[in-house]
Amino acid sequence: MSADKNPNEKPDSIMKKFRRDFLYGLFIVLPSIATIALVVFFINTISGPVKALFGQTIPTSLSLIITVVFITLIGVAGRNIIGKAILNVIEDLMSKIPLINTIYKSTKQILHAFSLQKKGLQSAVLIEYPRKGIHALAFITKENPTGLIDKKGKDFSEGKVSVFVPTTPNPTSGYFIYIDKKEIIYLDISIEESVKVLMSAGVVSPEPKAIV
To answer: Cα–Cα distances in Å, from 143 out to 51, 88, 125, 165?
Structure first.
């Protein structure tokens, strides 16, 4: 049985109900609106230079296709010796222009951060670093390292794992250390999710795994 209403409780006013329903609806549609706005902004941004070159008469869809083809050609050129030399000259020029160099370097660092998963990082882990009682997010670079032979012939790498401990908010820099396997806590999150956590200083949390 449902509890009886309190006779002394005043019913909500129409304005109060309207405000409550409006805010509830806003929380529902806002993520979709933000996503659509970001997609439109991205399309307008990436196709903007082509429109500026050919004028506003060119359709957005065509300018987007031309831009994608142009970027792909730059990628192809950047993979050979001549293309790399040209890109190095452009990068050197960008790094010498005040204000522009800050924006360029920051953007490059962000892009490099999200490409960390392609640099041989195997899995995300927690380790006690820089001291006991403090845990740092890190990445395993090799499960079974070898070659650390001391002068007595003992393999120091036995039973250890090589780990990269990144910094925040730029996870492309950090520290390389060896740690005992038994001191590692393996995490059930991807490299990409780990990078997001690092870049946001923990503000962004990984999506919880669905329990089957």
So the answer is: 50, 35, 12, 15
Give the other-Cβ count within 10 Å of 87's Cβ.
Answer: 13
Please provide residue 162's backbone torsions phi and psi, each rounded to the nearest 5 degrees.
Answer: -85, 130
Question: Quick one: CA dihedral 153, 154, 158, 163, positive or negative?
Answer: negative
Q: What is the pLDDT of residues 49-70, one digit of tens each?
A: 776 777 666 777 777 787 778 7
In angstroms, what CA-CA distances link 191 with 88, 197, 206? 29, 10, 11
Which residue matches tokens 């032979």? 149
- 159 phi-psi bin (left φ>0, alpha ψ -120 to 50, beta other): left
123-128 and 135-142: which strand pairing?
A: antiparallel
At residue 2 the predicted structure's pLDDT band, cuts being 50, 70 and 90, is: very low
Separation of first and last alpha carbons in the chain = 34
Closest CA to 201 of 170, 163, 165, 177: 170
- Tens of pLDDT, residues 134-170: 999 999 988 888 888 888 888 888 889 999 998 887 7
pTM for the model stands at 0.48
Q: Which domains does the chain have, with CATH numbers?
A: 117-199 (2.30.30)
Give 23 or 197, the one with higher predicted confidence.
197
